[in-house]
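Hey team,

Filing this mostly as a record. A colleague (T.K.) asked me to run one chain through the structure pipeline before their review meeting, and I want the input and output archived in the tracker in case anyone asks later how it was produced. No errors, nothing strange. Just documentation.

Input sequence:
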Amino acid sequence: MGLLVLTPPTRRRPLIPAAAWVFLYGMTWNLVWGLVVPPAQAAASDKIAIVANQHYPVPQLTIEQLREIYLGRKTIEQFLRIRPVDQSDPAIRNIFLQRGLDLASRDVYITHWNRLLFQKGGLPPLLKDSPDDVVTELLKTDGAIGYLWLEDAQNRAGLKILLVFPVR
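Output structure:
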């Protein structure tokens, strides 16, 4: 009879270390939720334009009026229901929230709207995927108001620019 010798199994090293998995998972999560702005998109323009349908009843807005609208405090303009429109693109949205609404982050904005919805009701801003979707919404809704890079807003038939503010 032969002698059976048991040897401990050899430990194979993982192809990707655990720390790398954690890093990759975190970066994917941040990209999906818009917390990291790709550098190519961050410098798309140096100004943001607040735009509305040409039938919007006022010729211009102040930054304070813009905050009132996007934070749900002002919903009517001369008998016309105001319908703010957001963009899901983090490059412009994060800058708009910080410079236009003076909010620290997207999370503060979402928390504000969640609290407002549960306490008072109302309609949060529409969220559109692209600048073209924002323009389409603005053209079909008289009370809609949105934001675009200034270059995207200029010379658009049917729209008027209500306010322009710098990115930096």
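Quick notes for T.K.: The two ends are 83 Å apart (CA to CA). Residues 19-43 have pLDDT under 50 and may be disordered.
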